[in-house]
Design a protein that fits this description.
The structure holds two protein chains of two kinds. Chain A is built from twelve helices and twelve strands. By secondary structure, chain A is α/β, with parallel strands linked by helices. The two termini of chain A are 33 Å apart. The mean pLDDT of chain A is 98. Chain B is of the alpha/beta class. Chain B has a single domain (3-279), classed as Thiamin diphosphate (ThDP)-binding fold, Pyr/PP domains (Rossmann fold, 3-Layer(aba) Sandwich), CATH 3.40.50.970. In chain B, the strands form three sheets. A five-stranded parallel β-sheet of chain B has the order 2-3-4-8-7, sandwiched between helices. A two-stranded antiparallel ribbon of chain B has the order 1-9. In chain B, strands 5-6 form a two-stranded antiparallel sheet. In chain B, strand 5 (181-182) and strand 6 form a beta hairpin. Chain B is globular. The chains are: A alpha/beta, B alpha/beta. Chain A binds chain B through residues 33, 54-55, 57, 59-60, 62, 64-78, 95-96, 99-100, 103-105, and chain B through 60, 64, 106-108, 114-116, 118-119, 122, 124-134, 136-137, 155-156, 159-160, 162-163, 166-167.
């Protein structure tokens, strides 16, 4: 695995990467099957799906049924991948994925696109800030906030043979280029993107770029901040969290989700039990979403590099 | 169907009722009404229609039963125990800590239970997925899905029926236990469901209605679902909640009932009498 971050975007759209990777997985594994709820066009799978109707099932706008059908397919020996927008892939199908999926031990990979502010023009009704909290509360679930297209490919392939419910949240547009093509990231292992000594920023998804920008700005002001990629929110890499908290003595968590029930809470549990140090968060302050560009929404909900810098100074003052 | 086979199935249904009551009595109370109304169908499924191997419950080519009205667990366990999936004596562990026989059906606990159910409506989608998966795998087996009439108030049922019809799942047979009653009373008072036959036909099912207390009618309806074709099948079972035990039938609120020692003796005596009349 090689880190190649230079502040630029990965040229590939995540939706195209999703479409290609899903097709690759299903073509390579006779037990893999892909289901969608009338959003195939949104992740570039429609053309391939029409040519492979037995392995790519459009369930129509009936997400709860899709989750249950996926569970039934798992009973029949399949390893289903299902997709919808993050709101519907979490809130709307929660009881189905919880009971027909998790409780019944039917292994399913769930992809929720447009997490948090990446839902932009679809607005508040389509803007999941709570999806992470819901899946964190599902026993045995794996919860992923994809860092970039390279991380997405690596994680999606690992999920095929991982037990339980796997929830992957990822936007459909571009993310910062963080990892070199072909890099493999191990689910459950956090990745150090930038070394530091004064404070550590634990971030995930689109907040990695903001964290790295904040760290660069802080360095110019004489503050050394580490940045750690927590793309696996659950199971959290508790050893890495503990080691960095001990080394730096101050923690900031940055996530594109509600501050309650997400990455921040999971990290606070580790800190409370293993290494209590001052901590602060950059996340949505218990609000519903709204419509706008991603730039507007990141400002509106306080999800920018400037907000991270501010919180780093806050925790440093409490050290 | 031969007269003797018909008699055997009727006897099997009575034994299912007795065993289910024995299980519920052992813990003091439970879902009596809906267990009694589905007993005749379970007798025909396991006594005649389904291809299963009690000694190999996970056999890949078996016919599967999805009891989406998962609270009928005691009737299912009674049937499975009588078929030899597990020891009969185990029925008395129903709902006790650590049991393999929980109130609602659980595929990870009970030998012979194919799908986990209990949250109403969810078994219907799982049954459709299972039928689709079996077809893709080229298996010749079938999936039987039992749905409660009150359960059909759940919207998910109708999403899954639409899906089953769209995917032409003729290896799926939906059996609706139209026993007219739900927890809070009669469907017609709580949320009337109207004409089940018309609804299922409108959703694209090959549909018939039979007397769900008559094993011969149930057997005939199931036999015609072997034909395949391009439609899923629906059998609307005209039943009485609590069927087979007079006192239960006549209790309006019989969804969940205490089964005291006294009741158990009385109800079992009635069933034993019916069994003796049948078998001599």
């Amino acid at each position: 695995m090689k880190i190649v971050y230079n502040g630029e975007l990965n040229p590939r759209l995540c939706k195209d990467v999703l479409g290609e990777t899903i097709a690759e997985i299903v073509n390579a594994d006779e037990n893999a099957i892909y289901l969608d709820a009338d959003l195939m066009s949104c992740i570039s799978t429609l053309k391939w799906a029409k040519a492979n109707p037995e392995r790519a099932v459009d369930c129509g706008i009936a997400e709860a049924n899709m989750a249950g059908v996926a569970a039934g397919l798992a009973v029949a020996g399949f390893k289903p991948i299902i997709h919808s927008f993050g709101t519907f892939a979490s809130r709307r199908i929660y009881d189905q994925i919880f009971l027909s999926g998790g409780y019944a031990k039917n292994d399913i990979t769930v992809i929720g696109t447009d997490p948090g502010v990446t839902a932009t023009m679809n607005g508040g009704t389509h803007m999941p800030f709570e999806d992470v909290a819901l899946y964190n509360a599902l026993p045995g679930a794996t919860v992923i906030d994809a860092s970039d297209p390279v991380c997405l490919i690596s994680v999606l392939k690992q999920c095929q043979n991982r037990p339980g419910i796997k929830y992957i949240r990822v936007g459909r547009k571009q993310l910062a280029r963080i990892y070199a093509d072909g890099s493999e990231l191990e689910i459950g292992k956090a990745v150090t993107l930038r070394e530091g000594t004064d404070a550590v920023i634990f971030a995930a998804g689109l907040m990695l770029h903001e964290a790295l920008q904040a760290a660069a700005s802080l360095e110019a002001q004489g503050v050394s901040a580490a940045v750690v990629d927590c793309f696996t929110i659950k199971p959290i890499d508790a050893d890495a969290i503990e080691a960095w908290a001990k080394k730096c003595g101050a923690v900031v968590v940055a996530e594109n989700a509600n501050r309650h029930g997400g990455l921040y809470d999971i990290i606070l549990e580790v800190l409370a039990e293993r290494c209590p140090v001052p901590a602060a968060v950059v996340a949505v302050e218990d609000e519903f979403g709204e419509v706008g560009t991603q730039g507007y929404l990141q400002e509106r909900f306080g999800l920018t590099a400037a907000h991270i810098e501010e919180q780093v100074r806050t925790v440093l003052a409490r050290k | 169907m031969e007269y003797q086979e018909q008699k055997d199935l009727r006897a099997f249904a009575i034994r299912i009722r007795m065993a289910a009551l024995e299980a519920i009595h052992s813990i003091g109370s439970g879902h009596v009404g809906g267990a009694m109304s589905i007993a005749d169908t379970l007798a025909v499924l396991y006594g005649r229609e389904m291809n299963v191997r009690p000694e190999d419950p996970k056999w890949a080519d078996r016919d599967c039963l999805v009891v989406s009205k998962g609270h009928a667990g005691p009737a299912v366990y009674a049937t499975l125990a009588l078929k030899g999936f597990f020891p009969y004596e185990e029925l008395k562990t129903l709902n006790r800590g650590g049991t393999r026989l929980p109130s609602h059906c659980d595929r990870n606990k009970t030998p012979g239970v194919d799908v986990t159910t209990g949250s109403l409506g969810q078994g219907t989608s799982q049954a459709a997925g299972l039928a689709l998966g079996n077809r893709i795998k080229g298996r010749k087996n079938r999936v039987f899905l039992i749905v409660g009439d009150g359960e059909a108030e759940e919207g998910q049922c109708w999403e899954s029926f639409l899906f089953a019809s769209a995917k032409k799942l003729s290896n799926l047979v939906v059996l609706i236990d139209w026993n007219k009653r739900q927890l809070d009373g009669y469907l017609d008072d709580v949320l009337p469901m109207g004409d089940f036959v018309a609804k299922m036909e409108a959703f694209g099912f090959d549909t018939v209605m039979v007397d769900g207390g008559d094993v011969a009618q149930i057997a005939a309806a199931l036999e015609r679902t072997r034909a395949g074709g391009d439609k899923p099948y629906a059998i609307v079972l005209d039943t009485v909640k609590g069927h087979g035990v007079d006192e239960v039938e006549q209790t309006a609120m019989n969804h969940s009932m205490p089964v005291t020692d006294e009741r158990f003796e009385r109800w079992t005596a009635e069933l034993r009498q019916k069994l003796e009349a049948l078998e001599g």
